[in-house]
Amino acid sequence: MVKRSETALIARRGLMLVLSSPSGAGKTTLSRKLLDEDKDVMLSVSVTTRKIRPGEKDGRDYHFIDRKRFDVLIEKSELLEWAEVFDNYYGTPAKPVVDALAAGRDVLFDIDWQGTQQLSDKARNDLVTVFVLPPSIPELERRLHTRAQDDYETIHRRMAKAADEMSHWAEYDYVVINRDIAQAFDDIKAILSAERLKRERQPGLYDFVRGLQAKL
Questions:
Q1: Is residue 7 part of a domain?
Q2: Half-sphere exposure at residue 114, Cβ-oriented, CA atoms within 13 angstroms
Q3: I need a surface site. Which of 1, 66, 70, 98 has the fewest CB within 10 A?
Q4: What is the pLDDT of residues 146-191, one digit of tens each?
């Protein structure tokens, strides 16, 4: 069996891993677990016009900016994708992602189907998309109430929007049903491992194989 250390020098292009779901289905929890466990994955920190929430930190969770600055980023084509969600705007700065992929790092996106479509239009070959579904609608509503981040009106709006969000599940490469967070996390790790091994994501394999052949 070839040890990881023996193949570590094979050049690999990074990938963009998208996790999408209705609010409350678990994508944020899964994202945080992946970032904690896998140091080869970095989070794409979005810009947003919404207000900062308790416990969030500017520059770590989001870059919190005003609408005027957001519009400038759009005009200068400095966003890979952007969308309006519940009267707030969210977008992905392009440069950090482009640099990370070239350096062989994977970039994790916690975005909705609109942003995913825009990424697909611009960089489909680098993209791996996963849609996370709740096990049931009552469980989705329970999770929204349990996390205590939104008032009743906002939760009602999120539930009303969930049907539209879930209608896009078939546009994704993979679907994970989050019945159990540990199992859902294992599923996402398996997806990431397989996608990293794709031949087209390992340009260094060409020289590696030539080196093997030269020793025959």
A1: no
A2: 10
A3: 1
A4: 765 666 677 777 787 888 899 999 999 999 999 999 999 999 999 9
Report the number of distinct structural domains present in the chain.
1
Residues 6 or more apart whose CB falls under 8 angstroms from that of 196 comprise 12, 15, 106
- Here the tokens at position 37 are 């466990």
In a domain, 111, yes or no: yes
Q: Which domain holds residue 146?
A: 12-44+106-214
Tokens, residue 29: 């929890």
Burial grade of 177 (CB within 10 A; 0-12, 13-18, 19 or more): middle
Enumerate residues 6+ apart whose C-beta is below 8 A from 147.
Answer: 24
Q: How far apart are CA 215 and CA 12, in angstroms?
A: 23
Q: How far apart are CA 30 and CA 107, in angstroms?
A: 14
What is the rounded average pLDDT for all residues in the chain?
89
Is 141 contained in some domain?
yes
What's the CATH number where 122 sits? Answer: 3.40.50.300
Asked if the structure places residue 142 within a domain, the reply is yes
**Tens digit of each residue's pLDDT (9 = 90 or more) over 63-112:** 999 999 999 999 999 999 998 888 899 999 999 999 999 999 999 998 88
